[in-house]
Write a structure and sequence with these properties.
By secondary structure, the chain is of the alpha+beta class. 58% of the residues lie in helices and 27% in strands. It has helices spanning 3-20, 25-87, 94-103, 107-126, and strands spanning 89-90, 130-143, 147-159, 167-180, 183-191. The chain is rod-shaped. The termini are far apart. The chain crosses the membrane at residues 37-60.
Length: 192
């Protein structure tokens, strides 16, 4: 047998031996690879869940901000309109003025205004008093989706029997508006 043949036989035997012996590195490599794939899947799932949760938070915040902006805008306009109702008075139409004032009020303010209105009504009639209010400026001080506090600057032109020439009163009003039954109503009014 030549030297080359012996090497070929040894190579063939070595190849046969390696084919018949189990590969001890394969399960370890597969296990490590499997753990890496599993870890990647878990990490990807966690990142996806985190991304989804973040998106939900952003959508919720945008919705809440939109609700608050809408509340501010609606309550501010309602407060301006109501300030004109409060500061405009015509003795020839005083009952309608009081009805409009009570229709825009709620809570303790409505109760207090209702109790004092009968005495005030007679004083205004006896003195032939009238007034016209104009909102010069207004701003929201604080707001929630159901309660908004507004600061108003209102000029009121007042006349009466003793002084028929108009006098201008510059009123500063702090008004709290509450959302009641889908309407913004004044729950507190303070002249500053």
């Amino acid at each position: 047998m030549s030297h080359w043949q012996a090497d070929d036989e040894n190579s063939a035997t070595a190849a046969d031996d390696s084919a018949s012996e189990p590969d001890v590195t394969t399960p370890q490599a597969t296990g490590a690879r499997g753990r890496r794939v599993g870890l990647r899947t878990v990490v990807t799932g966690l990142l996806l869940a985190l991304s989804l949760a973040t998106s939900v938070v952003f959508v919720w915040q945008a919705h809440t901000r939109h609700q608050l902006d809408a509340a501010r805008e609606q309550a501010l306009q309602a407060a301006k309109d109501y300030a004109v109702v409060l500061t405009t008075l015509d003795v020839t139409n005083i009952d309608a003025n009081y009805r409009d004032t009570l229709a825009g009020a709620t809570g303790k303010f409505k109760d207090d205004y209702s109790q004092g209105s009968s005495q005030m009504r007679q004083i205004l009639i006896d003195n032939h008093a009238s007034g016209t209010g104009i909102v010069v400026d207004a701003a929201v001080k604080s707001a929630t989706p159901t309660r908004v506090e507004v600061l108003l600057f209102v000029d009121q032109s007042i006349t009466n029997a003793a002084n028929p020439s108009p006098r201008i009163d510059r009123n500063r009003i702090d008004m709290t508006m509450d959302l009641v039954g889908g309407r913004w109503l004044a729950s507190n009014v303070e002249i500053l």
